[in-house]
Each structure stands twice: as structure tokens, then as C-alpha cells.
Automatic annotation (TrEMBL):
<dbReference type="InterPro" id="IPR018713">
    <property type="entry name" value="MPAB/Lcp_cat_dom"/>
</dbReference>
<dbReference type="Pfam" id="PF09995">
    <property type="entry name" value="MPAB_Lcp_cat"/>
</dbReference>
<dbReference type="InterPro" id="IPR046366">
    <property type="entry name" value="MPAB"/>
</dbReference>
<keyword id="KW-0560">Oxidoreductase</keyword>
<feature type="domain" description="ER-bound oxygenase mpaB/mpaB'/Rubber oxygenase catalytic">
    <location>
        <begin position="47"/>
        <end position="238"/>
    </location>
</feature>
<protein>
    <submittedName>
        <fullName>Oxygenase MpaB family protein</fullName>
        <ecNumber>1.-.-.-</ecNumber>
    </submittedName>
</protein>
<dbReference type="GO" id="GO:0016491">
    <property type="term" value="F:oxidoreductase activity"/>
</dbReference>
Length: 280
């Protein structure tokens, strides 16, 4: 249940993981949906990571399953918590799928920080209200713990500012188009399409470019940069949505219910043993 009942109140207390859960499941559900979407495609913009992902083949051969599974793993941990049985099963899966994956500890930290920083930047820019510093702290604490549980070699940044600096600095050095990144994007376009509102589906690549927060990301994805007038219209539409949200009650249905997501890949919901690549 939401920790606070109205749009006039904000979360309090010291249950940081609970506060983050509340942000994702209730208070900023639309914003996180878009923000995680932006994070997912970031992996294609780092040539070395794109190469690893392309070589494994999951994203090309099962793009829908791969993208839903990624969302499910993260949301299961957020919803159930690190110590729940389901949360632990998902951490176990994360440790298993990344065993032997070539990548420096910096590469791993970067992927983790995309999940922290990009949805929060989306909220900062497009959200129905700004985050409180307690909410920012809650998100930082969640990903620091996720990194620890995954066994990452380095500790995650301790503040959002530091996390943002790390992400930007890494991207300044590494963002670039690559044949593997282009191939991954190509196979994933179908998965993107189906998540967009129907009228936007024919313009999938255009919308994807509009959603990206940096022009270098659009270029690294091999997408055409949007003309300025279109970006202005897009931002205005998202702003209207935020203004409308401000006038409506907070959602009381969570954005995610474990096992229940009904999507083409799991029409009747899923069990945890269906999640993740087949063990080889
Ligand atoms: C801490 C940072 C990271 C997080 C939170 C993360 C998250 C995830 C998640 C949720 C999955 C499960 C998807 C599924 O079940 O199909 C996954 C799978 C995978 N990840 Fe990561 N990832 C991280 C870093 C990386 C990095 C840096 C690389 C590559 C250099 C990578 C490569 C893979 C591969 C190869 C898989 C297996 C599925 C496939 O072959 O596509 N991950 N990751």
C-alpha cells in the first residue's frame, strides 16, 4: 500500500527501500516506466557491452522475453525486498547470469547507475513533482544494496550527484555507435513498439530518439536526431501529462504485482522459474 495517501504529502521515515518501492509502484509509476525504458536502451550505446550482449544472442532471438525479464527481475526485487524469497531468487539469477560475463567493474557499475540515475533524471525533467532528498537517498540506497548483493567489486556512489557524475564521465569516454548496438536495437524495435500507445507505434524510432536525454545517446543508438520543434512538442505533451497527474489522486493500484504481469510472452502471468535465459 502507498506510504502516504495524497499528492499533498510526501514519504517520511527511515525505511529507505520501502520509500523507493513506493516511488516505483505508486507515486511515480508512469515516470519510472519511461525512465527504465531509457535505461534499458543505454546498454546498446556502449560498444563493449553491446558486443557481449550480441554474442550471447538473447536479445536478438528473444527480444520480448529479454526485455520483460529484465523489468521483472528488477521489479520483483523492488516489490518483495532483498530478503524476501522471491527477491533472493532474483538476486541469485542475477549472480548466475553474470558469472563469467566479460566486463570491467566500471562497466557493471555503469549499468547499475543507469537504473538509478536515468529514471530519476526523467522525474526531474518530466515528473509531476520534484523528488524530495529523502526519496533520492532511498533510490541511492537501493542500488548500493543491489550492487552489494550482486557481488560487484566496487561500492556504489553514496549520493545521487556522485552517481550522476560517474555516469556522465563514463559516457563521455564510452558512448559510441557500434554494429552490435545497431543490431540489438533492430531486434528490439518490436519489443519497443508494443509498449508504446497505439497511435505512436508507427513512429517507434522517432519516439525512442525523442525520449533520449542526451543527443550523443541518440547518435550512439544510430538514430536520427529529432528536429527541435518536434522535441519541443514532445516535451510539452509529457508536461501536460504531468500537470494532469498533479490534479488526480495518487494511484492505489501498484504498477507491478509479482507473478501477475500479463504480456504476450506470459499471457497468464509467470512463475519465477520462467525468468531469465535457459541455463546452459
Ligand atoms: C550491475 C549491473 C547490471 C545489472 C543490474 C544487470 C541486470 C540484468 C538483468 C536484470 C538481467 C536478466 C535478464 C534476463 O533474465 O533475461 C541481465 C542479464 C544479462 N546481463 Fe546484465 N546487468 C548488469 C550488468 C551487465 C553488464 C556490464 C553486462 C555485459 C558486459 C551484462 C550482460 C548480461 C548478459 C549477457 C545477461 C544474460 C542475458 C543475455 O544474454 O542477454 N550485464 N542483466
Amino acid at each position: 500500500m502507498p506510504t502516504h495517501p495524497t499528492r499533498q504529502s510526501v514519504p517520511e521515515g527511515d525505511d529507505l527501500f520501502g520509500i523507493y518501492r513506493n516511488m516505483v509502484l505508486y507515486d511515480f509509476q508512469k515516470e519510472f516506466h519511461s525512465g527504465f525504458f531509457v535505461s534499458y536502451y543505454r546498454n546498446f550505446t556502449i560498444p563493449s557491452t553491446a558486443k557481449v550482449l550480441a554474442e550471447r544472442g538473447e536479445m536478438q532471438h528473444r527480444p520480448m522475453k529479454r526485455s520483460y525479464d529484465t523489468a521483472i527481475v528488477i521489479h520483483e526485487i523492488i516489490t518483495g525486498g532483498f530478503d524476501s524469497e522471491r527477491g533472493q531468487a532474483m538476486i541469485e539469477l542475477l549472480r548466475r547470469v553474470h558469472k563469467g560475463v566479460p566486463g570491467t567493474s566500471e562497466d557493471f557499475m555503469y549499468v547499475l547507475m543507469t537504473l538509478l540515475v536515468l529514471p530519476l533524471r526523467w522525474i526531474e525533467k518530466h515528473g509531476w513533482r520534484k523528488l524530495t532528498s529523502l526519496e533520492e537517498q532511498a533510490a541511492v540506497a537501493f542500488y548500493a544494496e543491489l550492487g552489494r548483493r550482486m557481488g560487484l567489486a566496487d561500492a556504489a556512489p553514496e549520493t545521487l550527484e556522485e552517481a550522476g557524475r560517474f555516469l556522465d564521465e563514463y559516457e563521455d569516454r564510452k558512448l559510441a555507435p557500434s554494429p552490435e548496438g545497431a543490431m540489438l536495437l533492430d531486434s528490439t524495435v518490436e519489443a519497443i513498439k508494443i509498449r508504446l500507445p497505439k497511435p505512436l507505434q508507427p513512429m517507434t524510432l522517432r519516439v525512442l530518439a525523442l525520449m533520449m536525454d542526451k543527443p550523443q545517446v541518440t547518435t550512439a543508438l544510430g538514430l536520427k536526431r529529432s528536429p527541435r520543434w518536434l522535441q519541443v512538442i514532445f516535451n510539452a505533451v509529457v508536461r501536460c501529462r504531468a500537470i494532469r497527474a498533479r490534479m488526480q489522486p495518487l494511484p492505489t493500484n501498484p504498477a507491478f504485482v509479482p507473478g501477475k504481469i500479463a504480456v504476450s510472452v506470459y499471457p497468464g502471468g509467470y512463475t519465477l522459474d520462467q525468468i531469465g535465459p535457459k541455463a546452459s
